[in-house]
Amino acid sequence: MKGSLTIKTNDKIAKIDERIYGSFIEQLGRAVYTGIYQPEHPSADEDGFRSDVIAAIKQLNVPLIRYPGGNFLSQYRWEDGIGPKNQRPTRLDIAWRELETNQFGLHEFIDWSKKVNSVPNMAVNLGTRGIQEAADLVEYCNFPGGTYLSDLRQKNGAKEPFAIKTWCLGNEMDGLWEIGAKTAFEYAHLANETAKAMKRVDDTIELVACGSSSMDNPTFGSWEETVLEECYDNIDYLSLHRYYGYYNDDDPSELDNFLAKNVDLDAFIKGVVAMCDAIKARKRSKKTINLSFDEWNVWYHSNDADTQVSSWQVGPHLLEDVYNFEDALLVGSLLITLLKNADRVKIACLAQLVNVIAPIMTDTNGGTWLQSIFYPFMQVSNYGKGVVLTPHVESETYNSREFNNVPYLDTIATYDSTNQTITIFAENKHQHDAIDFSIDFDTLKLKEVIQSTQFSGYAPKDDNRDGKMNLAPLTAVNLDDCHINATLKPLSWNMIQVSVDSK
Ligand code: AHR
C-alpha cells in the first residue's frame, strides 16, 4: 500500500505551544504517595521525592503539570497541605474514598515540579468552595509579601512568590459524580465571579473554565454555550476531557475501530472551537478563547479491579491501567491530532503521569517501569518543536464500526527553524499491510537523517511489564534533496527526523 505526505514549508498550522505536552498529577491512588513522594524509598531525595521517578519524568519531558485534581479537587482544602507536616490534618477524601494525610501539599508540589523541569497548572476547588478560597490561594502563591497570606507563604519557607500563571476554575463541574456538581448556569456564574476575584489579586494569570467532562455528557454543547456566554471576558481557555476505552476487548475486529478514535478527538476539538467562535461572534468580541485539553488518555483496563479496592486507605492501587501496544498506537494518533489542532489547543495534559492511568509506574518496594504509551509521548514532546506544518496526505482509508473513511496513514510534520530540523511522526494503522511512505518537500533542501525509529512488531495486547518494549531503528530511510522514502510496518508508530537547509 502506498501513502504520501507533501510538505509545503510555508503552509503552517501554528507555532506549537509546548504546554500541549503537559501532564497531570492528582492526589489519587499511588500518584503521589509511593509514586512521586516516598520518603522511606531508597531513591528518595532530601525532600522525600523519588529520584528514579524524577529521572523518568525528565526523559518524558512534560513542561506543565496540572494539580491537585481531578475529582479530588472538588472537596480539597488547600490550607491542609501547608505548614509543618506534623501539624497537617488527615482527612477523608470523599471523592475517591481514600485517606489523605496531607504530607504532600502545595510547597512540596512546587518544589517537585522544579525538579522535573515543569511548571504548575494549578486548580481551585469550585465544588465545595468558592470565590474567597480561590482568591486566597492566588494571594498565597503569587503575591510578593506584606499581607497575611503572602507572609504565611514566606513563613512556610518560600520567600519568592510561586508565580503560577495557569489556573483551572474547578474540575468537571458538569459531571454528576463530582462533589458539588453544578448546573451550567450555577457553574458559569461562580466561575465568572471567581475569575474576576482571582484576576484582581494577580492580573497576569490565565484562567481555564470547565467545558464538558466528555462529549457524551447530555449537557455537552449547552454547557459550553452557557459558560462562554457568562465568562467570556474573564477567562482565557475552555477545557475538554476525553478518555477512550474498548467496546469489546475480545473482538479482534474492534481494533480498527479503537485505532480510529482520534477521529472522535478531532471532531470534539473542532466542535468546541466552533462554539467558542460562535459566542465570540455573538458578543462582537475581538478576543479568542483557546482550548485546554486538560485530561486525555486511554482508560478502561482498571475498571473492574477498582471496584475491589477497599475504602479509606492511603495511596491505594486505583486506576492502575496496564497499557498495551494498541493503546500506544492510539496515544500516538491522539498526539498527532493535538498537533493538527495546535492553532487552538494551547494546553493539553496527558492524564495522568505516575501510577494512575500513567506512562510511568512504580513498585513501592522497587524501581520504576515504563508503559507502552511512554514511547510515543516521549518522542512527540521531545522532538515535536517549532511549528506544525499542514499535512497534505494521501492514504487508503477504511470503515469501522463507528468511523468512516479513516486513513491508514496518520502523519504530521513539525519544523524547528532554530535547529533547522523537520520531524515527521507517522503511524500505520493497517493490521497486515506495510505502507510505502513517501514524503515530498518544496522549499527545503534535505541534508541528512538525524534519527529514525519505529515502535512495531508487538502483538496488540502486549504490554511492557517485563520491560522488553523499546523503540527500534527504522532502517532503509532513503533521502535525496527534497524527498524521503521509508517503509512503515503494519501497526507501527514511526519518527523520522532530518536536518534541512533553505533552498
Ligand atoms: O483522571 C481521573 C479522573 O478522571 C479525574 O479525577 C477526573 O477529573 C476525571 O473524571
Structural notes for this entry:
- The chain is about 25% helix and about 25% strand.
- Helix 6 (about 220-230) links the parallel strand 9 and strand 10 (about 235-245).
- It has helices at about 50-60, 105-115, 130-140, 150-155, 185-200, 220-230, 255-260, 260-280, 305, 325-340, 375-385, and strands at about 1-5, 10-15, 20-25, 65, 90-95, 100, 120-125, 165-170, 205-210, 235-245, 290-300, 345-350, 360, 370, 385-390, 390-395, 395-400, 405, 410-415, 420-430, 435-440, 445-455, 470-475, 480, 485-490, 490-500.
- Strands 3-4-7-8-9-10-11-12 form an 8-stranded parallel barrel, surrounded by 6 helices.
- It folds into 2 domains: about 20-250 and about 285-315 and about 345-355, TIM Barrel (Alpha-Beta Barrel), CATH 3.20.20.80; about 390-500, Golgi alpha-mannosidase II (Immunoglobulin-like), CATH 2.60.40.1180.
- The longest helix has 21 residues, at about 260-280.
- It is an alpha/beta fold.
- It binds alpha-L-arabinofuranose.
- Alpha-L-arabinofuranose binds near residues 172, 213 and 295.
- Alpha-L-arabinofuranose binds near residues 213, 295 and 352.
